[in-house]
Specification:
Number of domains of chain A: 2
Oligomer: homodimer
Shape of chain A: globular
Largest sheet of chain A: 7 strands, mixed
Largest interface: A-B, 44 and 44 residues
Strand content of chain A: 15-25%
CATH architecture of the largest domain in chain A: 3-Layer(aba) Sandwich
Strand order of the largest sheet of chain A: 1-4-5-15-10-11-14
Distance between the termini of chain A: 59 Å
Chain lengths: ~475, ~475
C-alpha cells in the first residue's frame, strides 16, 4: 500500500524514559553556585525554608541520571508521551527540503509542558510532608499546571497571579479554581512584600518578580512549617524534570530511523521548555555530534542575546538567592508582549552556561514575525498555538528557508510548548493589525549593567568563563 | 514488571477504519423520507441547490459501508485516532467495579469531534466545484471546525454565528478568523431572512434556527452556483462521517481484549456526537448483543425524553425540508444553558428512529449535576471538558454507581466530545453557585403539539411506528 498516514510517533511502555537527564554532570565547566546576599555560596540547608530537602538534593545533584519514581511516571503518562509529529504541510507551504519534526506538549490537561515538573514537584513535596504549595504565575500556565497537580495529589495550592493578568485573563484563573487552586491577584494585602508594593503604587499592574516575592514570603512565614514554595522554571531541578521531553523525542526519532536532528529549536522564557527538549541533545553535542541548538526569545525581552551574564536575583524584591545567569537586571520590566511566558528578566543558569560554553546559539525574534508564523502554522498544520510556541515556529521557518536556499535536507526538531486557547486576544490584535514590534534601547542594557555591577559575584572573569 | 502505565490505546496504520458505517442499512424499519412543504418526499435533485450531489448521495444511501477517500483519511489522521483511555482515577473516586473507557475527541485542532465531518464535507464540496461554504454556528464549535477544514483545502467559509454567542464568546470568533473564516453575527442585514428577523425585533439575541435560515439563503441565492451550505449535525451523511469514532473504539477495545461494552453513553444535541460513537454498537445490538445505549440531553431541552416524534422543520423560519424526528417544535427557544451545543429543538432522524425502535434509551440530566460531574472529572482525570461532554460524564457516573450497587463489573464506554477551554465562564458561574436547574413546563410540550399537528406527515401512526 503506497498510501501513508501523517507521521505521528508514540512510544510503547518499554520505550518510555525511566530516568531524567542531568546536564550538570556533563557540562565542560562545573556550574557556578547560587550565592547568598553575603556573596557566599548557599548551602542546601539555607534553601530548606523554601523548598523540601528532596528537591534541593535534585537541585544540587551532579548525577547524570536520576530515576523517576513510578508513581510520577504513572501520573505523567496519563497524557504522555507527547506525540512526535512531522509538519509535512508546513514543509510543503515553505517548499523546503528540510524535514520538520515537533513535540506537541499542548496535550497535557493544563495545555503546556508545565505539568512535567509540576507533577514531580508536588509528589516530592507530598512525600516530604508539605500540605500547601505557594507559587506565582504570570500568564497563568504555571499556576494552572500546579493547581492541576495539587488537585491530583490532594495538596492545597495558593497562586499569586500578576494583577494585570488576573484581570485580563479571567479564564486562566477559572482553570486554577476548577482544580481547587486559590488564585490571588498580586500584589496582595496578604504579605508584607505585597503591602509594601501597594503602598509604593496602589495601582501597580504587578509583575512576575513581585509575585515571586509574595509567594516565597507566604511559604517561609507559615508557622506550621508545612507550606513550601514552588517555581515553574529557571532552577536546575525544574529543567531536570522537563528533560523527559527531549529523552522521549530521541527515542521517537530513532523509532523512525533518524539518528540525530541537525537543528533543535525551542522558545525560552525562564528556560525550562528549551532545556527540556534540548539538554539530551546538548549531551550529544558535547560528545561530538554536529547539532545546532537554538533557544528563541522575544526581541523585546532579549535576555540571552543582549543580556549580561552575571549574578542576579530571580525576583524583583531581591528575596531569592543570587543566580549566575543572563539577565536584563531584576528591575527590568518587559514590554507587555503577548507571549507572557517569555517576559522574564533572567534565564535558567543551566541554559545560560550552555550558551556561555558555545553549545547553544540564542536568537531573538519580534512578535509580529512570530504571530505571522503562528497563523501560517494554523492554516497548514491546524493547531492554534501559544504565542510562546510561535517563537519556536518562527525560528523553525527561518531555518527551513535557509535549508531551502542551501538545498539541504536537514532534520529540524522543535518544541511546541502549548496551545493558544487562552491567548486568542493576541491573535485578534494581530489580525486587526494592532500589534507592533519593539526594540529594547541600548540605554536599558547600560542601566542594568550599572545596577548589577555591585552585586556579589563568584570567581567569574569578564568573558563569563571560569 | 508489575508496574503498568495508565491505559491509552491507539491504532496502527493497518487497523484504522477505511469505511464509514451507515446505520440506515441495518435499522429494522426503513427510514422515513424528508418531505417538501407540499408533503411529498423530497427527491435528491430538490436538495441540490443547497448541497453538492456527492453528499446528497451519501445522505440517501442505503449501503452499509462507504469507503473513505484516502485524502480524507490523511487529513483526519493528522490527529486521529482519538485515544481510547480508561478513567481509572474516576473509577477509584467512585469506588465502582465498573471499568470506564472513553474516546477523547478533544484532540482535534478545533477541539471537538466536529472536524470528523467538516473535513469530508469540505473535501466532497471541493471535488464538486464548490468555492464557498456557508454555515451557522451556535456556541462556535461547528463554525471553528468548518473554518479549519476550509483553510486546509483552500475554500472560503462564511459563518452565521448566533448574535448572543458572537458577543459573549469572542474567542470562538477569533479562532474562526485565525483559520480565515468570515464570521457574521446573526441575524444580519446580509440576507432577506436576517433583515426580516431584525425588522421583527432589532434587539433579538438570534437563535440557531435563524442562523440556519440565513446560511441556507446565502448559499441558494449565490448566482455563481459555487456556494453551498453545510450542516454540522442532524443529517444522515453527517452522522455517517462521525461513525469513525465508534469504529475506532471497537478496534481499540478489541486490542485490549474487550469484546463489547455493556453500556455506551454520549451526549446528543443534533445527534452526531452520539451517533458517531454509538451506531457501530447499535449494529451489534440489532445483531443480538446485549448493550445498553444511552443518549444524554439537558433536562431544559428534553427533545428525546419529552419531545414529540413527528415531522418538523430543521430551522425556525421553515426553510429546510421536514424531517421525521423527536422535536420540541421549531418555535421552541431553549433556555440559555451553558451546553450551547445541546440547545436544539430537534434530533437527527437516525437517532430518533433508533430511539423509536427501542435500540437506545435517552436520558435527561440537569446542568448543575453535569457541572458537578465535570468538576469531579477535572479533579480525577485532569481535563477540563466541554459542558456538552459533561452530560455524558454525569450519565457515566450514574451508571458506574448503579454498577457499584449491583456489584457488577460492567464496561462503560462514553464519548468525550470536546474540551471546555472556551466554556470557562460556565465553570465560573457554577463554582460561584450561580447556576440553576430548570424544568420545561408541560404547557410548552402541549403548545408544540399544537404547532406541529398541521404539518405534513408521512405514513406514520400515533406510536411513531410505521
Amino acid at each position: 500500500m503506497p498510501f501513508k498516514l501523517p507521521i505521528k510517533v508514540y512510544l510503547n511502555e518499554d520505550e518510555i524514559p525511566r530516568q531524567w537527564y542531568n546536564l550538570a554532570a556533563d557540562l565542560p565547566s562545573p556550574m557556578l553556585p547560587p550565592l547568598g546576599p553575603d556573596g557566599k555560596p548557599l548551602t542546601p540547608e539555607a534553601l530548606s525554608a523554601v523548598f523540601p530537602m528532596n528537591l534541593i538534593e535534585q537541585e544540587v545533584s551532579q548525577e547524570r541520571w536520576i530515576t523517576i519514581p513510578e508513581e510520577i511516571i504513572e501520573m505523567l503518562y496519563r497524557w504522555r508521551p507527547s506525540p512526535l509529529k512531522r509538519a509535512v504541510y508546513l514543509e510543503q507551504a515553505l517548499g523546503t527540503p528540510a524535514k520538520i519534526y515537533y513535540k506537541d506538549e499542548s496535550v497535557s490537561p493544563a495545555g503546556s509542558h508545565k505539568p512535567n515538573t509540576a507533577i514531580p514537584q508536588v509528589w516530592y513535596n507530598k512525600k516530604f510532608g508539605t500540605k500547601t504549595i505557594t507559587t506565582e504565575t504570570g500568564a497563568g500556565q504555571w499556576g494552572s499546571a500546579l493547581a492541576f497537580s495539587c488537585s491530583l495529589m490532594g495538596l492545597a495550592c495558593k497562586i499569586f497571579m500578576v494583577r494585570i493578568s488576573f484581570e485580563q485573563k479571567p479564564f486562566r484563573k477559572i482553570m486554577m479554581q476548577t482544580w481547587g487552586g486559590k488564585c490571588i491577584a498580586s500584589p496582595s494585602t496578604e504579605t508584607e512584600a505585597g503591602r509594601s508594593f501597594l503602598k509604593k503604587d496602589p495601582n501597580t499592574p504587578g509583575s512576575l518578580g513581585m509575585a515571586i516575592s509574595e509567594a516565597v514570603e507566604a511559604a517561609v512565614t507559615d508557622k506550621s512549617g508545612t507550606t513550601k514554595y514552588s517555581l515553574g522554571s529557571v532552577l536546575n531541578h525544574v529543567l531536570l524534570h522537563q528533560t523527559i521531553i527531549g529523552l522521549e523525542a530521541k527515542k521517537q526519532l530513532q523509532k523512525i530511523g533518524i539518528k540525530k536532528p541537525d537543528v533543535v529549536i525551542a522558545c525560552a522564557g525562564g528556560g525550562s521548555n528549551f532545556g527540556g527538549l534540548a539538554f539530551p541533545f546538548v549531551a550529544d553535542k558535547i560528545a561530538g555530534a554536529n547539532i545546532e541548538i537554538i533557544p528563541v526569545e522575544p526581541a523585546s525581552c532579549p535576555t540571552m542575546t543582549r543580556g549580561i551574564f552575571t549574578y542576579d536575583f530571580g525576583d524583583s524584591a531581591g528575596m531569592t538567592p543570587l543566580l549566575p545567569m543572563h539577565t536584563l537586571g531584576h528591575n527590568f520590566v518587559p514590554e507587555p508582549i503577548h507571549a507572557g511566558g517569555l517576559r522574564y528578566h533572567g534565564m535558567a543558569p543551566l541554559v545560560s552556561q550552555t550558551i556561555v560554553e558555545g553549545l547553544a546559539t540564542p536568537r531573538a525574534i519580534q512578535q509580529t514575525e512570530c504571530f505571522k508564523a503562528a497563523i501560517l502554522w494554523a492554516n497548514t498544520e491546524g493547531m492554534i498555538i501559544a504565542p510562546e510556541s510561535s517563537h519556536a515556529v518562527a525560528a523553525t521557518i527561518q531555518e527551513a528557508l535557509k535549508a531551502k536556499e542551501e538545498g539541504k535536507e536537514k532534520v529540524i526538531l522543535f518544541n511546541l510548548s502549548g496551545h493558544g486557547h487562552m491567548d486568542l486576544a493576541g491573535y485578534s490584535k494581530f489580525l486587526e493589525g494592532k500589534l507592533t514590534d519593539w526594540e529594547l534601547p541600548q540605554a536599558n542594557i547600560e542601566a542594568a549593567e550599572q545596577d548589577l555591577k555591585d552585586l556579589p559575584k563568584a570567581k567569574m572573569n569578564k568573558t563569563g568563563k571560569w
